[in-house]
Design brief:
176 residues; alpha/beta; 35% helix; 12% strand
Amino acid sequence: MYSIIMKSTLYRIKALNSKDITIRRVFSASVRRMKDIPHAIAWYMPFGFAKKNRNKLKLFKDIHKGKRCFIVANGPSLKKIDFDLLKKEFSFGMNRIYLMEKVNGFRPTYLACIDWKSQLLQFTDEYNEQTNLCFYDWNLRHLFDKKENFMFIKGKFSPAFSKDPVKERALLNQYS
C-alpha cells in the first residue's frame, strides 16, 4: 500500500509546475497529512465501528453493475431539470440535494457529501436527519449518529477516483 501511495505522489510531483511549489503549499499539505494520521489508523482497525463500516461499504460493490447511475450536483441549473426522468434511475445526490425533495419531489437513491467546510460542519444537524443511504467523510464520523443508513468513506490525498472505497481508501476526493 505504501509503495502505491509513494508512486502516486511522485507522479503528482512530476506534473507540478515549479512555480506551484511554494513553502506555504508544502507546509499546508504536510499539516493536512499529519492531521489525517489518527483517522487513517482508525480506518484500518480490524474491529468495532471501523470494521462494521467497511463491511457495510463492501455490500455496495457491483450492486448496480451494468445499470445506469446519475450524479446530481447542486446549482441553479437544477431548476430546468425534469426530475421525473430520474425517478426510476439510480442516482447519487451531492451535498444538500435533499432540499430538492420539497421543491420537486426528487429524492436520490444515495446522498454523498464529503465537503467539510461548506457542508458537513455547517449543516451537521440536517445531514444527521437524513433517511437516504448516506456517504459522509470518515474523518467527521464523530459528528454523526451511527445510523444504519450512514456510511463513512475515507478520502485520500490524490485526485484519483476509486472504484473500491474499502480497498483504496476513497470514493471521492476531499482535497481537490
